[in-house]
Amino acid sequence: MSNQTPPNDSASSATVENQIELKEVEGLSQGQIVRRRFFRHKGAVVALVVLVAIVLLAITSIGVGSWTGWWKFTPNETGTVIDGGAPNATHPFGQDEAGRDIFARVMRGTQTSLVIMTTVGLIALAMGIVVGALSGYFRGRTDSFLMRFTDLIITMPVIVIGAVLGLLSGGDNAIVFGAFLGLVLWPPLARLVRGEFLSLREREFVDAARVAGASSGRIIFKHMLPNAVGVIIVNTTLLLSSAILLETSLSYLGVGIQRPAVSLGLMISDYQEAFASRPWLFWWPGAFIVGIALCVNFIGDGLRDAFDPRQKNIPSERKMARAKRIERPKPSATGDALPEPGAS
Amino acid sequence: MFSFISRRLLAGLGTLLVSTFAMYLLVSASIRPFEDLEQSTNPNKLEQIAQRRELLDLDTPAVIRYFKWLGDFVTGDLGVGWRSGQPVSNMLQGAVISTIQLVAAATVIAILFGVMVGIVSALRQYSTFDYLTIFVSFVLYSLPAFWVAVLLKQWGAIGFNDFLKDPSNSPLVIVVAGLVIGLLCMLAVGGTVKRRATTFAIAFAATAGAILYLQLSNWWLDPNLGPVIILVTGTALAFAITALTSGLKNRRALGASLTTVVIGLALYYPLQSLFRMPFSWMYVLGLALVTVAVGIAVGYLWGGPDKGISARAASLTAVVVAGMIFIDKVMSLWPQYMGAPAINGRPIATIGSSTPNLGGNFWVQTLDTYTHLLLPTLALVLIQFAGYTRYSRSSMLEVMNQDYIRTARAKGLPEREVIMRHGFRNTLIPLATIVPIDVITLLGGAIITEQVFARPGMGTLFIRSLRGAEIEPVMAYLVIVAALAILANIVADLIYAALDPRIRVNA
User: Fold this and answer.
1) Which keywords annotate this record (chain A) (predicted)?
2) Residue of A nearest to B467 (CA)
3) d(CA B106, CA A92)
4) Which residue of A has its CA nearest to B20?
């Protein structure tokens, strides 16, 4: 994060930048290029590490199903309140007024949120791709019907439909609740996929595939979808962070996950009155919500940088200098013709 | 144009019908009107359930009930919330006003600050300020609204009220506040090392000086702007507004703006006696219009070849000065407000939208509304702010890379004119279309904020009725929100067509 502004004599610096760009991706596949760019985004890498750590911690500590994990307490087990429930060696996150271990509860809440996030992602992804692809590929009547359907869902704020569906789902099963939320959150994705497909279907390779006799399904899934994958991945990631915020908000409002199931939003709702006397009851669930959402957002940003070369980073001064050095050994007569990339 | 609007309205009406139909079925499937009875141990439980079934007409299929509801709705009968027995129209009355107050204030503030920060950030792309803005907007994006609201309630309200008991800042607080604001200003302005150092020094001195002044003059307990502060800030703002709208070289515009500041000050004392009369919002609106008119008149009287530009600068300054006089009047009620038995020295409210049994005149009531609006608005602003910063940043970046910006620079326009006239205006086009749609999202966000701060708004009404299994209030809320959303979309299209001549509405 240095303060220098890039040199603005754009013509020469643009070619230099291009050269750096070409030099870096020389001989790499698309996947490798994307991976490289992603790992260059430091924020995204840190976020990925933190997110993996959170997932591992949440799964191993209190376990899943009948497996209880390595943590000594379970989320709903009450016990004697030690020292007013303040955090100590046995209860690192403290206890609530019924003596339940907050660490175990936060872990269960994190699991709930992660399960819901995954379910929402899968459902919204499937719906978004199918609706968007059909709409963009077939156009005409299919398109206008599907888009009217999409508009219908967009008429209401997601939190309003989410509240109704959350109540409908009963709120004791995270997967069902997540599936319902997925049914609310797909329209923006469908619109993006549609836009992408509308422009892709005019491309030559699609014509080529059609002339070669490929079926519509094959063209959609084998030829067009791989070319739209960047937009889809980036926006699904961003959708995941809004899903987690939506889930916790609905649970906070009392129309999402219901007791005895544990959700981070529900915990905050239960404990907000205790903020002054027992702040740990409020801080830990909040910290985990913010942590997960922030990580997912940063990963999304890293993916966007990786997939969209138009938003490339400005090369550092050192790289610019190195590029100039590469350029110098072969000064051409006109001065602006650059050597072929990789010639030196 | 007319046919476009009527066609869109008709289509919108259709959407509204289908969406209310779907929502009615969903809501009636999800609510559980017998939940309380099922858990009761009353011996005549079954009888009660049967009674309620009768009352709610649950033996009729939901589809038929929808059409019954629709029939009542179009004839103006919104139904009755069966738990309280209150007609829905009564329930809505106060709620709509409360929510509009909240959402309107939050939208305006979020747009002003978000657009400002976003544009500065875009103009200084890849600077530390830019990175900081992106990072902060990421963090704000990831914050759950209810968590922020609870935090604000605890720190903003309770913390500030405690502070008011003994309002004094330690020197450390003053230095830290000065450092933070100084650094932010330095990063936002940028430039050479010398310029940065100067900016930092000025911002630091101004912040520390302001806090010291507030403390020494007992401002926290008896806040006022007074003619002196209005004169100083008014003059500074007159310069700033002129610099942004027409450049300081335009002496006539500067003169016109300064004249309105003088006029405002001259009217300060006469206005105080006017304020003592019975007052209402109609007077405020009238005075605001008069202010704008005076500003425009002053601008035209200064004359010159560009009367319009002077008039614009002068009327903007006039509005700002008049706003300060209004705020000064509201502030002067502060000691009286603090001392009122209903307030008891803790002015920043955490619940409700007005203090019960407060009494007092228009000014006290206005102040009371503000203290109640403060924190919920802040919570909503924090959430919206990130979005507007991002929109305006990316929009400004795109505009500043256009060819016409290069043309403007190439023909030798000053940078101010390039940015304000060619960059800023075009940046606003995509923003203008986002705002109406964003207001709908904000209505959704208001559900959470209203719940945390216990404001009796539409969001609270919706959640309470949904959980209480009263379908009529829920449907009334849904109709209002859906109708607003459909209207907002039409308005967005019209704005876009009006601002961007490449787009035609009747296409």
Assistant:
1) Cell inner membrane, Cell membrane, Membrane, Peptide transport, Protein transport, Transmembrane, Transmembrane helix, Transport
2) A255
3) 39
4) A152
CB atoms within 10 A of CB B380: 26
The pLDDT tens digits of the residues spanning B8-30 come to 899 889 989 999 999 999 999 88
Task: For chain B, positions 89-148, list CB contacts with chain A under 8 A.
Answer: 124, 126-128, 131, 138-139, 141-147
What per-residue confidence (pLDDT) applies to A336? 43
Cα–Cα dist A180/B482, whole Å: 20
Q: Look up the pTM and report it.
A: 0.84
Q: Which residues of chain B have pLDDT under 50?
A: 507
Q: How far is CA B184 from CA B113, B115, B209, in A?
A: 14, 17, 17
Nearest-10 Cα torsion for B286, B288, B289, B290 = 90
Cα B470 to Cα A169, A253, B93: the distances in Å are 18, 17, 17
Question: Residue B361 has what pLDDT?
Answer: 77
pLDDT at residue A273, rounded to an integer? 80
- CB interface of B with A, residues 414-473, below 8 Å: 440-441, 443-445, 447-448, 451, 462-463, 466-467
Q: From B21, which residue of chain A is nearest by alpha-carbon distance?
A: A152
Q: Rounded to the nearest 5°, which phi and psi values hold at A162? A: -55, -40
The beta-carbon neighbor of B145 closest among A249, A254, A301 is A249
* SS3 of B444-464: HHHHHHHHHCCCCCHHHHHHH
CB contact under 8 A, A160 and B15: no
Residue A149: closest CA among A132, A162, A163, A129: A132
Interface test with B, best of A106, A117, A160 (most B CBs within 10 A): A160
The owner of tokens 């202010």 is B291
Rounded to whole angstroms, the Cα distance separating B462 from B71 reads 22
CB B396 within 8 A of CB B119: yes
Q: pLDDT, tens digit, for every residue of B431-481? A: 887 887 788 888 888 899 888 888 888 999 999 999 888 888 999 999 999
Q: Under an 8 A CB cutoff, do B128 and A160 touch?
A: no
Condensed to tens digits (0 to 9), the pLDDT of residues A117-149 reads 999 999 999 999 999 999 999 988 999 899 888
Which structure tokens are listed for B434?
Answer: 């986002």
- For A253, the closest of B143, B445, B463 (CB atoms) is B463
Chain B residues whose beta carbon lies within 8 Å of the beta carbon of residue A289: 144, 147
Structure tokens at B172: 């450390």
Distance between alpha carbon B486 and the CA centroid of its chain, in Å?
Answer: 21
Q: Using CB atoms, which residue from B19, B144, B451 is nearest to A248?
A: B144
Q: Would you place residue A327 in the very low, low, confident or very high pLDDT band (cuts 50, 70, 90)?
A: low
CB-CB under 8 Å, B451 with A152: no
Residue A313 pLDDT greater than 80, yes or no: no
CA angle B405–B409–B415, rounded 5-degree value: 95
* Contact across the interface for B466 and A164, Cβ inside 8 Å: yes
Q: How far is CA B42 from CA B39, B53, B82, in A?
A: 9, 17, 21
Residue pointed to by tokens 């006397």:
A277
Q: Where are the beta strands (DSSP E) in B199-297?
A: none
Give the model's pLDDT for residue A325: 67
Cβ separation A276–B154 shorter than 8 A? yes
Fold adopted by A29-73+93-324: MetI-like fold (1.10.3720)
Flag if A293 and B144 touch (Cβ within 8 Å). yes
Distance CA A111, CA B133 (A): 31
Its ipTM equals 0.84
**One-letter amino acid identity for A279?**
P
Which residues, numbered 24 to 83 in chain B, qualify as contacts with chain A under a Cβ-Cβ cut-off of 8 Å? 26-27, 29-32
Contacts A–B by Cβ distance under 8 A:
129
C-beta separation of B91 from B81 below 8 A: yes
A7 Rama sector, left if φ>0, alpha if ψ -120 to 50, beta otherwise: beta
